[in-house]
Write a structure and sequence with these properties.
The protein is an all-beta fold. Strands 1, 2, 3, 4, 5, 6, 7, 8, 9, 10, 11 and 12 form a twelve-stranded mixed sheet that branches. The chain is 3% helix and 50% strand. The chain is globular.
């Protein structure tokens, strides 16, 4: 699956200005002064600064690129890559037997540690939440892995079942927003309903943004 975005995180070619050039998911949910919208879907086309996306809900959405908007990619990672001290963004749902079960995991680059720290509501699925936190420990079990994460002096245990998407960020550019590419767009919505992209995460090489 940040105080200026997502899960989430931008690369401009290579990771440049890591702390300032990245929009993090938490910020979008936590900033009450800005109406934030997450758009998930596939690219129809990019004309100038207007990105047309067919959303997962089936409607067509036009998103204008802000001048400071960033584009990043995702690369496949493994649950065994998660180590104590790593900074992660985990979308999760409450489990019937207690605790939370992960829907996806984003392993942040070290330069983003602490960005958008916290636990907040998330719209990946109904009743889901996003936790941006530091891994305190990670224990392998029969049915996957359980991680204990810490944020703002609190701890939370999250089970990561086998098959849960685990990704990290990768370089990408606007030219990668080709027709059919799967995207996650963190956007701001104005009073008239127009959307302006702050962050776009695009899939590549068979890896799609799971957040």
């Amino acid at each position: 699956m940040l105080r200026k975005f997502i899960p989430a995180l931008l690369f401009a070619g290579a990771l440049s200005s890591p702390a300032t050039s990245i929009l993090l998911m938490p910020a979008m949910a936590q900033n009450a002064k800005v109406d934030r919208v997450n758009v998930r879907g596939s690219v129809i086309g990019l004309t100038g600064d207007v990105l047309k996306v067919k959303s997962r809900e089936g409607n067509v959405v036009d998103v204008m690129f802000a001048s400071e908007a960033k584009v990043s990619g995702v690369a496949r990672a493994q649950v065994t890559d998660i180590k104590p001290g790593d900074y992660v963004g985990i979308a999760s749902l409450p489990k019937a037997d207690g605790g939370d079960g992960a829907l996806e995991v984003l392993i942040f680059p070290p330069a983003l540690k602490g960005a958008g720290e916290g636990n907040f509501g998330w719209d990946l699925k109904p009743n889901s939440s996003m936790t941006n936190a530091t891994v305190a420990d990670a224990v392998k079990g029969v049915d996957g892995r359980t991680v204990t994460v810490s944020y703002h002096g609190k701890e939370k245990k999250i089970a990561i079942p086998d098959g849960t998407p685990v990704v990290t960020l990768a370089p990408a550019k606007k030219e990668d927003l080709v027709s059919g590419a799967v995207v996650f767009v963190a956007a701001a919505k104005d009073g008239k309903g127009a959307l302006t992209a702050q962050q776009v995460v695009v899939g590549a090489n068979g890896v799609v943004p799971p957040m």
